[in-house]
Write a structure and sequence with these properties.
By secondary structure, the protein is α/β, with parallel strands linked by helices. The chain contains eight helices and nine strands.
Length: 248
């Protein structure tokens, strides 16, 4: 019987083989984007996100090559995975054994473009590091781990060099570019133990390094066999209030 270390090495080797089979990202855009790369050498197209969430993010999306610290409801993480894979990208969920694949599919996820590693073993950070080599988005559940700053800097540099976005949740991670917190604000469609969930409301707060915090309410509503993300009208007013609060 092999040791835990041997099992981890075998898992890493298998992930590397799978990453090698993923088509190179941006291969078709390399020639087409030459002119824009000259004009904007440091600008990267944001990662696809649900449009309602994009309104709250500093750059209208999650910057490629960034690290995001996330706390709160898993529905938003599922929405991020769905937005990326549904737009033709590749993503992975590591250390999230309760991730709902049915919910992801209803949000528009392409499950053939989503790698799931529910049990990454004793070192989930190493698994995420391998996946950053070839995927657009890696969502990493830390399982309560506190990652030392020396290691978070290494992963941040890796994400930046590979233009991959890393979202970490369920633990302590220093130096994140953006921090997002989402809390369930209410439901519609459930009552006295029966009925079907129609709407889930999330209160979301976003903090960036160089931007005032933004808050807003998002609603997830079933529509045409899928799930639609809707931003409540008060989001704009809340953004202005946050700006005034930060400036005072």
């Amino acid at each position: 019987m092999g040791s835990a270390g041997e099992a981890q090495r075998e898992q890493l080797a298998e992930l590397r083989r799978r990453i090698a089979a993923v088509p190179a990202r941006g291969a078709g855009a390399a020639v087409r984007g030459v002119g824009s790369a000259v004009r904007h050498p440091l600008r990267r197209e944001p990662l696809p996100t649900p449009s309602a969430l994009a309104e709250l993010l500093p750059e209208g999306g999650l910057a490629k090559g960034s690290v995001v610290a996330y706390t709160g409801a898993s529905s938003l993480l599922t929405g991020l995975l769905a937005a990326v894979t549904g737009s033709g990208g590749h993503a992975a969920a590591v250390g999230l054994p309760r991730l709902g694949l049915l919910a992801a599919s209803e949000m528009g996820a392409r499950l053939d473009r989503l790698a799931v590693v529910p049990d990454p073993g004793s070192d989930p950070v190493e698994i995420a590091a391998v996946l950053l080599d070839g995927l657009d988005l890696v969502v990493l559940g830390l399982g309560g781990l506190s990652v030392p700053p020396s290691r978070t800097r290494v992963l941040a540099a890796r994400a930046r060099s590979k233009a991959s976005t890393l979202v970490v949740t369920g633990g302590s991670w220093s130096g994140a570019t953006v921090r997002i917190d989402a809390r369930v604000a209410g439901y519609e469609g459930l009552g006295r133990g029966c009925g079907r969930l129609r709407t889930l409301r999330l209160d979301v707060r976003v903090r960036g390094r160089s931007a005032p915090p933004r808050t807003g309410r998002l609603e997830l509503t079933p529509r045409d066999g899928g799930v639609e993300w809707v931003a409540r009208q008060e989001n704009t007013a809340q953004h202005l209030g946050s700006v005034r609060e930060a400036a005072s």
